[in-house]
Design a protein that fits this description.
mainly alpha; 6 strands; about 400 residues
Length: about 400
């Protein structure tokens, strides 16, 4: 019995040390002025610069084949939903192996919350970027969809409409803006010549763009040229009359909130615009006029639409309470996160928890946490993507 009591006391001390360390990290890393905005907080272009530059992530990781090959390609798996929850919990769940690999191999890069948000934004956009298209399949689509009847590519095809290779060479956003802005004048002639409005599915648009551009195709970096915050401004000026976001806006067109399936890559977005152009132009005319979007405005709107899938995850504080218990958090911190003799209170007061602040805390303190967990023989807990929003909602609740 004395031996068993001693073992129990040692276990309690170990659990107390581990949970107290985690609690201190969570408390210190709460982010004031938490923003639950409609647009993405992180900037993919800044994240790309950090990833390949100052933070040296690319020494180990590649993104779509560009970078190191010591660790996995971070764009190889498309993020699940909710996107922010998927990214944050993927980092958390892989922390032990990742930090063991980094340990002693190089200087450990430090990231603040904004830098973390930028890198997560970059990884999200990169994982949803277009893969290289098939130029042979694109040539077939150009013929089969009837584009050749009016347009030429490198002098091959019809001449009643503009030659397309120069437009395609400008990238996917220039291609999209040209298609959309000329759709109003194209609908009548195209349906007359072909008998119907051709539609694109799957990789059709990506393959077509590669063929028309002469093999240049779509580069992932071009898909991150837009600014989501500017895109939200453009959206409110040009699109919100017909489309709503989380119930705010017009009801003429489909709802575009994060709960709905949305095109995430440049050519997916182009396909949706093209396929729905006849109906969209007709409805736009009935409600005013179809808006014209310049290339930069189109890029910004694409960035905004993509960002709708990458918002601070929402959740239920009631489900979060159950998750908090099932994952074992309540054992030390209490059923309401009020704290016990084994662990301090971690319920938010004033400053709110966010997914980014929790992920930043993990990255900043993760190596020491992993080392400590290994010393104490504590298994690393795993989380699911949906857990994050529920846990944040539970910890951020105002009432006890």
């Amino acid at each position: 019995m004395p031996g068993g009591r001693k073992q129990l006391l040692l276990w309690i001390a170990a659990a107390l040390a581990a949970t107290a360390a985690l609690a201190i990290i969570l408390i210190r890393e709460r982010r004031p002025d938490a923003r639950h905005s409609l647009y993405i907080v992180g900037d993919p272009q800044r994240g790309s610069t950090l990833f390949y530059g100052a933070k040296q992530c690319s020494i180990c990781h590649s993104v779509n084949g560009t970078g190191g090959h010591i660790a996995p390609d971070l764009a190889a798996t498309r993020p699940g939903m909710p996107a922010m929850g998927w990214l944050a919990t993927a980092m958390w769940n892989h922390a032990p192996g990742m930090f063991r690999r980094i340990r002693g191999s190089q200087s450990y890069p430090q990231l603040d919350s904004q830098e973390m948000a930028d890198i997560l934004a970059f990884l999200f956009r990169a994982a949803n970027s277009d893969r290289p298209g098939d130029i042979v399949a694109g040539a077939d689509i150009f013929q089969r969809k009837g584009c050749v009847q009016c347009h030429s590519v490198r002098s091959s095809g019809g001449h009643s409409a503009p030659e397309l290779s120069a437009i395609a060479a400008g990238g996917a956003t220039e291609w999209m803006s040209a298609m959309w802005n000329h759709a109003q004048s194209m609908i009548g002639p195209v349906t007359t010549v072909l008998g119907q409005w051709p539609e694109f599915s799957g990789n059709d648009m990506n393959n077509l763009l590669v063929y028309v551009s002469g093999g240049v195709g779509v580069e992932a970096k071009n898909e991150m040229a837009g600014d989501a915050e500017r895109g939200w401004t453009v959206f409110q000026k040009r699109c919100i009359q017909c489309h709503s976001v989380r119930g705010n806006g017009g009801k003429v067109g489909p709802e575009l909130g994060p709960e709905h399936e949305l095109p995430l890559s440049a050519t997916q977005f182009a396909s949706v615009l093209w396929n729905h152009a006849p109906a969209m132009v007709r409805l736009a005319r009935e409600n005013g006029a179809a808006p014209v979007l310049e290339k930069t405005e189109m890029a910004d709107v694409v960035a905004f639409v993509a960002s709708l899938r990458y918002v601070e995850p929402t959740g239920s504080r009631f489900v979060g309470e159950r998750v908090f218990n099932v994952r074992g958090c309540a054992r030390c911190h209490g059923a309401s996160a009020e704290g016990t003799q084994l662990g301090p209170e971690i319920q938010a007061h004033g400053d709110a928890y966010t997914a980014v602040s929790l992920t930043t805390a993990l990255w900043k303190h993760g190596p020491k946490m992993v080392d400590r967990a290994e010393e104490l023989g504590i298994a690393w807990p795993t989380l699911e993507a949906n857990d994050l929003g529920d846990l944040v909602s539970f910890l951020n609740r105002t009432e006890k």
